[in-house]
Write a structure and sequence with these properties.
Elements (H helix, E strand, L loop, with lengths): L6 E6 L9 E5 L3 H6 L6 E6 L2 E10 L9 E4 L1 H7 L6 E5 L7 H8 L6 H12 L5 H10 L7 H13 L12 E5 L9 H10 L4 E5 L9 H8 L6 H11 L1 E5 L8 H12 L4 H14 L4 E8 L8 H17 L3 E8 L7 E2 L1 H12 L7 H15 L10 H10 L2 H13 L10 E6 L4 E6 L1 H10 L9 E4 L6 E2 L4 E7 L2 H13 L4 E4 L3
Parallel strand pairs: 1-5, 2-4, 7-10, 8-9, 10-11
Antiparallel strand pairs: 1-6, 2-5, 3-4, 3-6, 12-15, 13-17, 14-16, 14-18, 15-17
Helix pairs in contact: 3-5, 4-6, 5-10, 6-11, 6-12, 7-14, 7-16, 8-13, 9-16, 11-12, 14-15, 17-18
Length: 504
């Protein structure tokens, strides 16, 4: 009996599918027909002792691809590392063990450690489809994860990657749960903490649902895609770093889950806590401060929600050996003036450089959080941290440390300006009493942020300002006229974006 040939030559498609291995195959390909593959089929690709589970994209008009060849996305190519002339085999993979656990969670069952371990293992092995991952994320949303399950998920996510060992040194870290546009305190805080002689290897994410993540803003000024040896060199030289966590093997499953969470556009407390604290533990941190902004249009909207989140954070932190402090802050309005990577970077530099027109609210918030983190240092003494933080900032020590960190990460770059600007003005007069965080963030995203680094918007007013008719409220920045008009049209249609209380 003749054995079926299920092999194909390999080519590089040159397509970035962001952490998702994808195979491109012609529909008239003999392997596609023989194996019964269809679009979005999960297939196992094996080359020697290496294999990867990938999603199949079927070409109905595949003139660019020979019928005896499969093209690999960048992620699949990196996993298999083929050489010229290599042929790989293509088969149906065994059903993943964790699908039954995901199904159980969908129907409301409580999962134990072993089942979370299986899910995270299959996440990293690419054995779960995007539909499987979306089902898991949805089943865990809201309050569907108990604290015990959150602890188990956190441990699974940390154990799936590398945990840094700093030889007994005390490691500090901070995180903001987000939802507040322009709240770019991290580069300032890291500079202050490192200038104080402490170690703070800060890994940050790119934007999920916001106009900029810390990594997006920092990348405007210095490289952030460092590997672990480079991260170690920076921290050992300067005491701190601000790098993108997605390039590291620290809680790597989180970046896969974030890829699914981004289009779903929601977070859950359990997954948020597991994501944040697994990364803090993986970076080797022992003393951690979590900032929780609370406001009607922030991610956390009430004191009751903040209290429930704080309880979950403390319980998980204690279970995995972290000394955790929760800092509740004002989340009623954006922080600083810039919203978008380059515009937020300009605000950060204005504070560090002590410019005459620096955003006072960003400076004060950074000092509050840096001070609270310094209060976790036994030698600082209770409530003395903010004074130390202010001295380090006002003396220029924090600025010098920031520049040294940038140099160590690959060199500093001054933020640029977008090509196109449009000013949105007030249609009434009175006192500005509210800015909608979500709508202002959406305006910045429609302008192109964070994909376009120079895009976003600059606030020209603050809560409490007296507003005259026709007064400029904010300025939209974009790299293309199309995005500028898109954002302007949205902003002009949003009457509740800026709430002005008319004078009697």
């Amino acid at each position: 009996m003749t054995e079926i040939d299920n092999t194909l030559a390999l080519s590089r498609a040159g397509i970035d599918t962001y952490r998702q291995p994808v195979v491109f195959m012609r529909e008239d390909c003999h392997v596609c027909r023989a194996e019964g593959f269809a679009a979005l089929t999960r297939i196992e690709v094996t080359l020697g002792d290496r294999s990867v589970i990938a999603t199949l994209n079927v070409l109905t008009n595949g003139d660019w691809l020979p019928d005896d060849t499969a093209a690999l996305s960048e992620e699949a190519w990196a996993a298999l590392k083929p050489q010229p002339g290599d042929r790989a085999s293509f088969t149906h993979p065994e059903p993943p063990d964790s699908v039954s656990a995901i199904r159980a969670k969908v129907y409301g069952e409580t999962l134990e450690q072993q089942r979370f371990d299986a899910i995270i293992r299959d996440v990293l092995d690419h054995r779960l489809s995007d539909l499987d991952l979306a089902a898991f994320i949805t089943a865990c949303a809201g309050d569907r994860l108990s604290i015990a399950e959150t602890i188990a998920l956190t441990r699974s996510m940390q154990a799936a990657g590398e945990t840094l060992d700093w030889g007994g040194a005390e490691i500090y870290d901070k995180h903001c749960v987000g939802g507040l546009p322009g709240n770019r305190t991290t580069p300032i805080i890291v500079s202050i903490i490192a200038a104080a002689g402490l170690m703070i290897p800060k890994t940050s994410s790119r934007a999920i649902t916001s106009p900029a993540g810390t990594a997006d803003t920092m990348e405007v000024m210095a490289p952030v895609s460092l590997d672990i040896p480079a991260l170690r060199r920076v921290v050992e030289a300067e005491g701190g770093c601000i790098v993108w966590g997605g390039n590291l093997a620290l809680s790597p499953a989180d970046d896969v889950l974030i890829r699914i969470e981004r289009p779903l556009d929601f977070d859950s407390d359990g997954q948020l806590v597991a994501s944040v604290l697994s990364k803090k533990a993986a970076v080797g941190a022992k003393r951690v401060l979590i900032d929780v902004p609370v406001g009607p249009t922030a991610k956390v909207r009430s004191a009751e929600t903040a209290a429930a989140l704080a309880e979950r954070l403390r319980a998980v932190g204690k279970a995995i050996g972290l000394t955790l402090s929760i800092h509740q802050s004002d989340g009623t309005a954006p922080v600083g003036r810039g919203i978008g990577p380059a515009l937020e970077a300009q605000d950060v530099l204005a504070v560090l450089r002590r410019n005459e027109n620096f955003p006072v609210d960003l400076r004060d918030r950074a000092l509050d959080i840096a001070g609270a983190l310094l209060d976790l240092v036994p030698e600082t003494g209770s409530a003395g941290g903010r004074k130390v933080a202010a001295q380090l900032l006002d003396s220029g020590a924090a600025e010098a440390k920031f520049m040294a960190i940038c140099d160590a990460q690959g060199g500093f770059t001054e933020p640029g300006e977008a090509r196109y600007h449009a000013v949105i003005t007030s249609r009434t007069a009175g006192r500005l009493i509210a800015i909608d965080n979500r709508r202002i963030a959406r305006t910045a995203k429609l302008a192109g942020a964070p994909r376009q680094q120079l895009a976003g918007l600059r606030l020209l007013v603050q809560i409490g300002d007296h507003i005259e008719f026709g007064k400029p409220l904010f300025e939209i920045h974009a790299e293309t006229l199309g995005e500028l008009e898109y954002a302007r049209s949205y902003a002009e249609a949003q009457l509740g974006l800026c709430t002005i209380e008319e004078a009697n």
